[in-house]
Design a protein that fits this description.
Largest sheet of chain A: none
Order of helices and strands of chain A: HHHHHHHHHHHHHHHHHHHHH
Helix content of chain A: over 70%
Number of helices of chain B: 4
Radius of gyration of chain A: 22 Å
Number of helices of chain A: 21
Helix content of chain B: over 70%
Strand content of chain A: under 5%
Distance between the termini of chain B: 16 Å
Largest interface: A-B, 62 and 64 residues
Structural class of chain A: mainly alpha
Oligomer: heterodimer
Chain lengths: 438, 158
């Protein structure tokens, strides 16, 4: 059998299993096993599995993932989001659609200490949705805003997908986080602009006048813990005091203390933190195991290497290749979970991209491409037919039809497209901050 | 099923405690390194192996709650009954994968024991970490196969 048809069969097996609701990690695992055994036989396959769990689970670089997830869960259960939203609504109360903008601002703030979009969306929704409804915001605008705001959880560092990209491509996590800062702020501003434009173009979704709120000492003190944790974690990482994994550990401990000081953290809530961390971390690591098997098996067919050569021989501009990969992600992301998609495809696409000449140093290309991949992940979390964030927020809202929520995210998707084109055309926007990281 | 969910809860909480301990070790190590210049020897290794055990201990609860992501796009139009049956098949495959991993991890652990492989800085025997991973992998497999036979656990919708 030719290597191409073998690779095709491995892929078809994976997609077939996925289509019948086999967990994505397991579909990749068995498709990979099949390809591996077919190519090299049973004994090497068994040997390969002996250390598979150990190598992935007990890896220092990967420890950063459960630690950041734990940190986000302490923040979620610690009652920090309420003060954050109050503070944000004071800041934006002068604008039309101000409460929706406040939800975006609060999501961005929460995203600065949480690396997961779903956790950010769910946390901010629980405090912001009742307020937005009470003030007469439509279900469409409210759920759309909160789903979009949730993506700031990953667009603004820390960011679990970015950590995974850094590990897969052996890039510096601290530099990738630095690269994500400016695009993250652009995303936040872009979402606020989208709200401002939408409430003017399409009347009836936001109240005519916002309640003018006064900045209270309480609201101000409420956001202090977030600012402090963020400064400790990133100040420490960029000040060269500690590694990202240590930063995550310190951040989790600091968030834990902040939540304890707010007297929000009961024993039951701590248990809930552990359960949520368990579910989120185990899911990611199982995908690692599956994607490893799949990628080893595909690499043996040599097809990924041939693909890289083929693309290098094509007469198209390198930026168009990246744009093509991103379009592919948007299409694949319509049916597949974004994290699995990265784990599965980065080992194939990364060498392709690195083989092209962008007129930039290799490290810059790697970092910039990581930011572009992150943008498509954010887009995939909102875009129909399966936008995970939209489902999460819509599920919490209970009385809003899912179609309304998808209409609600449209302005934000437009904003996403503008931002992505901007970042694709000007790599300097992402790379500007990186130069200051030693 | 009560026993299985109790075990899954217990291992998730144990793992959570382990992770929290890591955060404390990290803080102690950092304060030591940056103030009095004393480094906790092998703190990276300690983090890695503890987190490794924690991740394995997280697996049973994740499967019990069916948090492993599936693609539901292609089967959305099928009846709930059919989807439930497909989920049982998915759990069957997941259980098989976990038990396969448990078996091979046990073999890997035994060979690490025979060769007395240790971590670089601490000289921490690697087989102990393997030994921590095998029981939760088995538990995850058993939970998945229980779901294949009896369907969802009552904690599902919690």
């Amino acid at each position: 059998m030719s290597s191409l048809s073998l690779a095709g069969m491995i892929f078809a097996t994976m997609l077939g299993l996925m289509a019948i609701r086999v967990p994505i990690a397991i579909a990749m695992f068995f498709a990979g096993c099949f390809g591996y055994i077919f190519q090299v036989g049973w004994p090497p396959f068994f040997n390969n599995l002996n250390g598979a769990a150990f190598a992935r689970f007990a890896s220092y670089d990967l420890s950063v993932i459960p630690l950041f997830i734990l940190m986000g869960n302490f923040a979620t259960q610690g009652g920090i989001s309420k003060a954050l939203f109050q503070f944000a609504s004071v800041v934006t109360s002068r604008f039309k659609g101000g409460l929706a903008m406040a939800a975006v601002l609060a999501s961005a703030g929460f995203g600065a200490i949480c690396g997961s979009s779903v956790a950010t969306a769910a946390t901010i929704t629980s405090v912001a949705l009742p307020e937005m409804k009470r003030h007469g915001y439509s279900g469409r605008l409210a759920t759309g805003t909160l789903a979009a705001g949730g993506t700031l959880g990953i667009l603004i560092p820390p960011s679990v997908p970015l950590v995974i990209y850094a590990i897969l491509t052996e890039q510096n996590i601290a530099k990738l986080f630095a690269a994500a800062m400016v695009p993250g702020v652009i995303a936040m501003l872009g979402y606020m602009i989208a709200i401002a434009v939408y409430v003017r173009l399409v009347p009836g979704h936001a109240p005519e006048h916002e309640d003018q709120a006064q900045l209270t000492m309480e609201a101000f003190l409420g956001v202090a813990p977030i600012a402090i944790v963020f400064l400790i974690v990133f100040g420490g990482i960029y000040g060269g005091l500690f590694t990202p994994t240590e930063g995550a550990g310190v951040g989790a401990a600091a968030t834990f203390v902040a939540a304890l000081l707010k007297r929000e953290l009961t024993l039951a809530k701590i248990r809930q933190c552990f359960y949520s961390t368990a579910a989120a971390s185990a899911m990611i690591f199982l995908i690692f195991i599956g994607a490893d098997m799949m990628n080893t098996s595909l690499a043996l067919t040599q097809v990924p290497a041939q693909l890289a050569e083929l693309v290098q021989g094509l007469d198209v501009s390198p930026v168009m290749v990246v744009a093509g990969i991103m379009l592919f992600y948007v299409v694949l992301g319509a049916v597949m979970d974004e994290l699995s998609m990265i784990l599965l495809t980065i080992p194939i696409f990364f060498p392709v991209v690195m083989g092209l000449d962008f007129g930039m140093p290799a490290e810059s290309v790697a970092i910039w491409f990581g930011i572009m991949v992150l943008m498509t992940v954010g887009f995939g979390l909102l875009a129909p037919p399966v936008g995970l964030n939209v489902y999460v927020v819509n599920g919490l809202a209970k009385d809003v039809p899912i179609g309304e929520s998808y209409k609600g995210v449209m302005p934000f998707l437009v904003s996403d497209v503008f931002r992505t084109v901007l970042l694709l055309s000007f790599p300097g926007i992402s790379l500007w901050l990186v130069q200051f990281v030693g | 099923m009560k026993l299985l969910s109790l075990l899954a809860r217990a291992s998730a909480i144990l793992a959570g405690v382990l992770l929290t301990v890591i955060t404390l070790i990290t803080c102690v190590s950092l304060i030591g390194r940056n103030t009095i210049g004393v480094t906790l020897v092998g703190d990276y290794e300690l983090t890695a192996v503890t987190a490794g055990a924690a991740v394995a201990l997280f697996l049973p609860w994740c499967q019990l709650k069916r948090e492993n992501i599936v693609v539901d796009f292609f089967t959305a139009r099928l009846s709930d009954r059919t989807n439930a049956q497909l989920d049982r098949f998915g759990s069957f495959l997941l259980g098989g994968a976990m038990l396969l991993l448990a078996w091979r991890t046990a073999v890997g652990g035994l060979s690490a024991y025979d060769s007395q492989t240790t971590s670089m800085m601490l000289g921490f025997p690697e087989w102990i970490v393997y030994a921590f991973m095998v029981p939760p992998l088995i538990l995850t497999g058993v939970i998945a196969w229980t779901q294949t036979i009896f369907g969802n656990f009552s904690e599902q919708g919690e």
